[in-house]
Amino acid sequence: MYTILKKLMETESFIPHGEIYELLKSTRNPDRKMIEQIIEKSLNKERLTPIETAYLLNADDPEMVQMIFDAARNLKEKIYGNRIVLFAPLYVGNECINGCLYCGFRNQNKDIVRKTLSEEELNRELYALTSKGHKRLIVVFGEDPMYSPKFIANIIEKIYNFKNKRGEIRRVNVNAAPQSIDGYKVIKEVGIGTFQIFQETYHLPSYKSLHVHGPKSSYVYRLFGLDRAMVGGIDDVGIGALFGLYDWKFEVMGLMYHVKHLEERFGVGPHTISFPRIEPAFNTPLANKPPYPVNDYDFKRLIAIIRLSVPYTGLILTAREKPEIRREALELGVSQIDAGSSIGVGSYSQKDQEIIKKSQFVLGDTRSLDDVVKELAQNGYIPSFCTACYRAGRTGQHFMEFAIPGFVKEFCTPNALLTLKEYLTDYATLETKRIGELLIERELSKIPEQKRKILKKLLEQVEAGVRDVRV
Ligand code: SAM
Ligand code: SF4
């Protein structure tokens, strides 16, 4: 049995379990100098090697942890500035043939209410979302033969075609089951943003015991899911691990080996990394008592370490987390968050008592989009709905922000301000508008005069009702 497992891991998987354990052991108790050197490399915008990440993971001394937090903050400011991109998840259907023990949608959960949006219901959800000001969605599906690539593509097309006065969705990302290469091609054709697949746990024995049946029980098929996406032409992919299923240090190493593999095979790493923690879910004992819970302190450590290890990726933090932890995590390098989220199927347009029975898990942050925009602006962040790169065909956008000197100042900040202005003009409450306008003024004052003049003109166009203005 052991030889079969070993063979499977070493020949078919790029997650070398033995090597990861060895690295996590040999890097224990790092000295301060070592941590300083690694941080310096990261601040020079170089991706860290697995052994360097392992040293950071083993820096348990509170002073060293503080150094890591400070460096992550520094790196975020230095490279990405103060923009936070906002999106919302849209659950399209929760039929599922898999048995992931932590998920409310698993097929043995007979008490969950199963639902797939009809065309009319989809339109109602889109109406609710665009009426709040959302411009970017991630569509989420359970795994079921009915959610075929064609079905997914069809939904995405409908979303792009939807119009609600000035409201529209300009970028659709996807979180769905891994597809075949041909399947990805069908989805690619309708113009998706990022295709996300979380490996859940990179630890093979845990994976096997948590995914007891269905297509998802194949660790390797899922692990190579984004390789097939790349081959199928989707070069914008997001990876992630569901924290709480196994040792968090191992999972961070798994993410790093995944990054390394994509870079080596395709010359480009993932666009985003997600690090959801398990949340309670209806009638799901394992989610209510995860086997390896990650406390808030370690959660912040892992975010900072991922930030430093892969300086070029976007980091996504979802509304699974409570507002307090979201506030703290933003500083450590997060670049995208969802807001005003509702994760029951159909629950943006229909609030009912059954929502918990239609949801995959329970959300930690249920504030409205307007509240989140207001708080971000109050705290000096620019809430951004920008989709300019994607719409201009500049994929690998995060990489450009990272690699091209001045790209953020030249494109990202002005576009963030223009989309914020749209939001403030069309959707914000009076108080949010007041705070947002002050932020725009402050940001304008930081821009050299010539460029400021141009941007001011564009902002005036937005005020006058022109939409989708971008540089
Ligand atoms: N069904 C597809 C799949 O499993 O790949 C699509 C994604 S699933 C609807 C979205 C993600 O939610 C999963 O990949 C998993 O990481 C996460 N998830 C599942 N149960 C969760 C829970 N109890 N708490 C937090 N996140 C959970
Ligand atoms: Fe189904 Fe995805 Fe939930 Fe697993 S995580 S049970 S595949 S919806």
Describe the structure in your own words.
Helix 4 (50-57) packs antiparallel against helix 14. Helix 8 (181-189) links the parallel strand 3 and strand 4 (195-196). This protein has three domains: 6-10 and 12-74, no CATH class; 82-397, Alpha-Beta Barrel (TIM Barrel), CATH 3.20.20; 408-462, no CATH class. It has helices at residues 2-12, 17-26, 32-43, 50-57, 62-80, 119-132, 149-161, 181-189, 204-210, 219-223, 225-231, 248-266, 285-288, 296-309, 323-331, 355-358, 369-378, 388-391, 397-403, 407-426, 430-445, 449-463; strands at 83-93, 136-141, 171-175, 195-196, 237-240, 272-274, 314-317, 336-338, 382-384. Residues 1-10 have low confidence and may be disordered. An eight-stranded parallel barrel has the order 1-2-3-4-5-6-7-8, surrounded by seven helices. Helices cover 50% and strands 9% of the residues. The chain has 22 helices and nine strands. The chain has 471 residues and is an alpha/beta fold. The radius of gyration is 22 Å and the shape is globular. Bound molecules: S-adenosylmethionine and iron/sulfur cluster. Residues 102-103, 140-143, 175-177, 197-198, 200, 242, 276, 278-279, 281, 287, 320, 360-361 line the site of S-adenosylmethionine. The site of S-adenosylmethionine has 21 residues, from strand 2.
Helix count? Answer: 22
CATH class category of the largest domain: Alpha Beta
Helix fraction? 40-55%
Oligomer: single chain
Bin the strand percentage. Answer: 5-15%
Summarize the structure.
With 471 residues, the chain is an alpha/beta fold. The chain has helices at 2-12, 17-26, 32-43, 50-57, 62-80, 119-132, 149-161, 181-189, 204-210, 219-223, 225-231, 248-266, 285-288, 296-309, 323-331, 355-358, 369-378, 388-391, 397-403, 407-426, 430-445, 449-463, and strands at 83-93, 136-141, 171-175, 195-196, 237-240, 272-274, 314-317, 336-338, 382-384.
